[in-house]
Amino acid sequence: MALLCYLLSDCIFRHGSTISPPFYKVRFLRQIDDYLAKLESGFITLILSLMIFLSFGQVILRNFFNESILWGDIFLRQMVLWVGFTGASLATRERRHIAIDFLPNILPATWRRSIGIFTKFCAAVICIFLAQAAWSFVAYEREAESVLFLNLPVWIFQIVLPYSFILITLRFILSALEDLLPFRRESR
């Protein structure tokens, strides 16, 4: 929130140049976001490949050898969590997240931009609370020293929850700032 306040105050109180300083700050944040998105896309590809390989291996082992990897199904369930939350973060970045757009459709078109900015900031605030709750959950699991399989602690697999909510928060704020500041978004 401090970053948001700084960018907004900088935008409001500086009028000296044709391209305001927040433009450069938002562009810098967008470049960091682009880099993170590439890492996340590669990570999802890696996890999905691993999931397909492990699932196929489990089917072959069960059907032909009456064997299986004991921890395989548990690991696959945890990887579904990672793919889902990382995918949600990428969907937010691309503005393809689940949205209820009832209100903008019944109000005048001139209000759509303002409503969009407001809802993105509200979504960011909600995601901050979800990130805090997820962090508390992971901390509780770490404190409880729960083990999932192969002596791996449960909290290692659940760390994706606060990470994703924090990233979704930042992406909602970045999207709202791009809509708020007076410059055109660069096409991706």
Could you please describe the fold and organization of this structure?
This protein has 188 residues and is mainly alpha-helical. It has one domain. The chain is 76% helix and 3% strand. The protein has seven helices and two strands. It is elongated. It starts with a helix and ends in an 8-residue tail after the last helix.
Main traits of this protein?
two-stranded antiparallel ribbon; 76% helix; mainly alpha; 2 strands; 188 residues; disordered N terminus
Largest sheet: 2 strands, antiparallel
Helix- and strand-based class? mainly alpha
Q: Tell me the domain tally.
A: 1
Strand content: under 5%
What is the terminal separation in angstroms? 26 Å
Identify the overall geometry.
elongated
Radius of gyration: 21 Å
Record field, number of beta strands:
2
What is the tally of helical segments?
Answer: 7
Task: Please trace the helix and strand order, writing H or E for each element.
Answer: HHHHHEEHH
Low-pLDDT runs of 5+ residues are 1-5, 11-19
Give the strand order of the largest sheet, numbering strands 1, 2, ... along the chain. Answer: 1-2
Mean pLDDT: 85
Helix content: over 70%
